[in-house]
Amino acid sequence: MSKLPKPAELAKVTYRPPATDWMDTPVELKSGMFCHGSKPKSLETIGFPNPREWRPADADWKLPENWKEILIEGIADRLKKYRSFRLFMDICVRCGACADKCHFFIGTGDPKNMPVLRAELIRSVYRKEFTVAGKILGSMAGGRELTVDVLKEWWYYFYQCTECRRCSVFCPYGIDQAEITIIGRELLNLLGLNIEWIAGPAANCYMKGNHLGLEPHTIIGNLEYMLDDIETVTGKRIKPSFNRKGAEILFVTPSGDLFADPGTYTAMGYLMLFEELGLDYTWSTYASEGGNFGFFTTNELAKRLNSKLYAEAKRLGVKYIIGGECGHMWRVLHQYMDTWNGPTDNLEVPKSPITGTVFENAKSTKMVHIVEFTADLIKNNKLKLDPKRNDHLKVTWHDSCNTARGMGFFEEPRYVLRSVVNNFVEMPEDTIREKTFCCGSGSGLNASENMELRMKGGFPRANAVKFVHEHHGVNMLANICAIDRASLPPLMDYWVPGVKVTGLHELVANALVMKGEKERTTDLRGEPLPSASAKEEKA
Amino acid sequence: MKAIVSFVAVLVLTAIGYIGGSAGSASKYLFGVVVPYAAFAVFVLFMIIRILKWASSPVPFRIPTTTGQQKSLPWIKDSKIESPSTGLGVIGRMALEVLFFRSLFRNVKTQLHEGGMLAYGEAKWLWMAGLAFHYSFAIVLFRHLRFFIEKVPVPIQMVEGLDSFLQIGAPLLYITDVVLLAAVTYLFLRRVGIPQVKYISLPADYFPLFLILAIAATGVLMRYFTKTDIVGVKMLAMGLISFKPAVPDTIGAMFYTHLFLLSVLFVYFPFSKLVHMGGVFLSPTRNLANNSRMKRHLNPWNYPVHVHTYEEYENDFRAKMKEAGLPVEKE
Predict the structure, then answer these.
(1) CB burial class (10 A; 0-12, 13-18, 19+) of residue A331?
(2) For the domain bounded by A207-379, which CATH number is listed?
(3) Among A residues 253-282, those touching chain B with beta carbons less than 8 Å apart
């Protein structure tokens, strides 16, 4: 692994394009900027083509002989299947409005990270192979021959896009680079050109039910540790159920929440909340992944992985599903799941057993976001909350790309956040809500060998946090995304030391006054509560 | 280089139009009747083909880019336009997009300051120039309808009146003529002036700018400077529209140049990026409601896939599951 440069060095970005035309500037795979190639075993598990040992840095990528034919056919096939793809190949006017909206462009200055140019990587081949002008006029019409170098360029840059959709907010035609990257990656997967950080978790998820490959007993074991910690903090022993038939609700969250902090604190938050409510719910070890790394490979694999949710809900006979805090998981659940694996006649329209609220907005998918569920509880005064317990925190809110631009999920989390903390500061307006910046590690790019890319891509996000850290003393970055919880801590340590990262339900659980709990002296992280202020308040 | 190639191409086309319009009556018939008819036919036919092609590809998933609050709990105010949950909201969103370039209006300029801090500044010039260009072009086209209708209708007269309300010169100066030329010039200058935009530009980005500039310039020349036989032009236009084409030989070469360049634009249109005019209406990130959890969206090519069933999973882990106290289907 290459050595990560110092922040001051990385913050010096030059935006001057090179002297040579982009079509004539060959791709250079820079170490620290890309991930390891997929391993044959992972591809075999999910039944993907061309499984073999290969290294992206090698000259020979061991492509099948007819690789070009496969790709051209792959493009033709997808032009027929996706109006988005066909349209986005034709209508871009290269106005450049998207250029400086991409976090990877802002962080690297590499012109091929401008969304428009990333799209042109495929568009140029499309023009050459599929348009009359491109066939006749070639490069004069913006056409380009598909060569191994072009293929490598695709691979390099489609794995330097986190499918965050920020560019599509600003595009006058709504051209969505995420859509083009998704299809670009599908094409690459026809040749076995994946990264192991995606292929591995996807294979795990297929066989074991979750990305991390946690086997059933390990899931229970991991939760036991959390239950011990909860008991230490609250004095209450919680006994959740697993794979229980007849439960009212199935709860599914990204497996990252079960694995490492600060995600585990969020999971403890879910456990405590559900316990306090006496909710009739169950975890599943089979459908133990809300996230979907299949979504970062092909539409088909995404559907295969997602199928477990409805299948398990049916097997267990639950009424509906609640989903935990996760970004791309919710893009998939909100915009794809019902289309892929619905309809769900065996499930019922979600209705909160506590408040009686019917979640009309989820009446077809039968899947409720836990933050919607909690916001409704708070609105109906069903939770006893003591936000003072979070008074040592000055919190800012990171809108995750997928819930922001793929769902429109802005007010629910803010409402919950304001109810459980007293100190909340927004980041500058061009960096939040629909204009939020990616953590730089989304869409399966949160590996370690590409740390330089991640720090560069996360630069705009970190920069906005730095602003509120310096001006308002913000020390906690809250979010509702498992990849954020995994990737923002190193990003903060690098760019804004002193700012920690938390999921929303960790803050909820800290503020939650549970029936019969002991006097709390620490928060879920075992850190002392702010000078016993909670105690004084009660007196 | 790419700009120069496009510029030369437009110069050559201009010359062809001028020479064609200067030659004998057969040539005038060619440039005044045959070429415009053919160009219009190509435009209509291939635009239809293009749109049918787009429409023939289905929209497998409902993927609006949400730029506002979703509709969820009743006490949370949803953004009916930016994140529409109804068809009416979608129409509103599309109207804002098509008529006012809503998304482009969001444009901000990202700047990296000394000390490594990013700043986001206003950047409305592209939006303004884009809007000015499209609207002035539309008004100019609309004004030209006077040539195709015997008695000029009131709406056209009103637009003409408004467009020339400054009352400058004779004939009266049309504001849209100036705005169109200025906007196209700006769009060209930013394309060569902003390094990133220059870097992404193709010949196909410069060509239509030069072409439209040439069309506007020849029109302006005719109206304000070289003059042309307006009565003759109207005769030609009326002949074309009523399919009884007649070519009066009183019309000057400048007019044929103008008409020829316009014909080129019509032919070029369906094969170029200019199709964005039709495409924007079909954009799935804009023209779909954000209601995918309320209403199931159908994918016409949805097909069954291989899944790893619970049964297979339990077979893999039965012993471990039992040991961990998990219920199993088969003992």
Answers:
(1) buried
(2) 1.20.1050
(3) none
pLDDT over 90 at B114, yes or no: no
Q: Which two tokens stand for residue A480?
A: 């509702």
A382 touches chain B (CB under 8 A): no
Q: Which residues in chain B are closer than 8 Å to A81, comparing Cβ atoms?
A: 57-58, 60, 301
Domain with CATH 1.20.1050 in chain A: 207-379
DSSP calls for A38-50 = PPHHHHHHTT-S-
Contact A367, A320 (CB under 8 A): yes
Q: CB atoms < 10 A from the CB of A528, how many?
A: 10
pLDDT tens figures, A438-492: 999 999 999 999 999 999 999 999 999 999 999 999 999 999 999 999 999 999 9
Query: What would you measure as the largest C-alpha separation in chain B, in angstroms?
Result: 100
Q: Does B315 touch chain A (CB under 8 A)?
A: no
> Within 13 Å and on the Cβ side, how many CA atoms surround B157?
5
What span, in angstroms and rounded, lies between the C-alpha atoms of A341 and A131?
Answer: 35
- Mean pLDDT for A314-324 is 98
On whether any CB of chain A is under 8 Å from the CB of B154, the answer is no
Q: Which CATH class is domain A387-532?
A: alpha beta
Report yes or no: A214 and B320 within 8 Å, Cβ to Cβ: no
Torsion sign over Cα A77, A79, A83, A84: positive
Residue A539 has pLDDT above 50, yes or no: no
pLDDT of residue B41 exceeding 70: yes
According to DSSP, the β-strands at A281-283 and A249-252 are parallel
Q: Is residue B124 assigned to a domain?
A: yes
In the predicted model, is pLDDT for residue A532 greater than 70?
Answer: no
- Chain A, residues 415-454, CB within 8 A of chain B, namely 415, 428, 430-431, 434-435
β-pairing verdict for B108-113 and B117-122: antiparallel
* B319 lies within 8 A of chain A by CB: no
Neighbours of B91 (CB within 10 A): 13
Among A140-144, A173-177, A328-332, A397-401, which is the least confidently predicted range? A140-144
Residues on chain B touching A494 (C-beta within 8 angstroms): none
**pTM of this structure:** 0.96
**Cβ separation B66–A407 shorter than 8 A:** yes
Domain count, chain B: 1
Q: Does B6 touch chain A (CB under 8 A)?
A: no
| A404 contact residues in B (CB cutoff 8 A) | 66
CATH number at residue B16: 1.20.950.20
| In contact, B199 and A20? CB cutoff 8 Å | no
B285-320 confidence digits (pLDDT tens)? 999 999 999 999 999 999 999 999 999 999 999 999
Binary contact (B320, A434; C-beta < 8 A): no
